[in-house]
Design a protein that fits this description.
One of its GO terms (molecular function) is protein-L-isoaspartate (D-aspartate) O-methyltransferase activity. It is found in: Cytoplasm. Its EC number is 2.1.1.77. One of its GO terms (cellular component) is cytoplasm. The protein has one domain: Vaccinia Virus protein VP39 (Rossmann fold, 3-Layer(aba) Sandwich). 43% of the residues are buried. Strand 3, helix 3 and strand 4 form a beta-alpha-beta unit. By secondary structure, the chain is an alpha/beta fold. The strands form 2 sheets. A 7-stranded mixed sheet has the order 5-4-3-6-7-8-9. It is built from 5 helices and 9 strands; from the N terminus they run αββαβαβαββαβββ. Helix 1 packs across helix 3.
Length: 203
């Protein structure tokens, strides 16, 4: 059984929280175009091609902490891009988890898939999104869903893909939102600050 969704991210063996440990061990530079790698340590978005970016590291860390990913979780990463967030999620779930990144841009999906494969974390992968499908429905739903692009409105299609006790973190317009699937099947939505992201393509 997964830990209570309200629990904090699990500590790593050296006392760091899981998010800090993942951010330290999964090098952002390995998920950037060669021309951007010298800038990997800068706390700002960096272009990765096709109009997309590698998000600002402090923003990524904030989203991951809000997501509260337990060890062994089944996680969907929407808008995986270069695969960096997919790899970060995999580092947090550990080998007992399952992390699927979906990306709509074919060239980025192929690059992201290769980047994630190179980490050796075989429980994570990036795939090309299915035409006309937002996310990737699965039986029983996902424990966690991370969306790294801004939606015009909260997408019901993604909310429907949350399993019981699940958490979805998504920017809607300029507001970071957390959606929780409660034990009775209802959802609770809360706001968590203002951010800027590239737009989410939903059709």
């Amino acid at each position: 059984m997964l830990p209570d969704p309200g629990t904090a991210p699990h500590p790593s063996h050296d006392g760091e929280d899981a998010v800090a440990h993942a951010m330290r061990t999964v090098a952002r530079r390995d998920f950037l175009p060669r021309s951007q790698r010298p800038l990997a340590a800068q706390d700002r978005p960096l272009p990765i091609g096709r109009g997309q970016t590698s998000s600002q590291p402090t923003t990524v860390a904030t989203m991951l902490r809000l997501l509260r990913v337990p060890v062994g979780a089944r996680v969907l990463d929407v808008g995986a891009g270069s695969g960096w967030t997919t790899a970060l999620l995999a580092a947090i779930t550990g080998p007992g988890g399952e992390v699927l990144g979906v990306e709509r841009e074919p060239a980025l999906a192929a690059w992201g898939a290769a980047n994630v494969e190179a980490t050796g974390m075989g429980w994570a992968q990036v795939v090309l999104a299915q035409p006309g499908t937002l996310g990737m429905p699965r039986p029983g739903g996902w424990d966690r869903i991370l969306v790294s692009a801004s939606a015009k409105d909260l997408p019901g299609a993604l909310v429907d893909q949350l399993g019981f006790g699940g958490r979805l973190v998504i920017p809607v317009r300029s507001t970071m939102m957390l959606v929780e699937r409660l034990p009775d099947g209802t959802t609770r939505v809360t706001d968590h600050g203002s951010y800027r992201f590239v737009p989410l393509i939903e059709d």
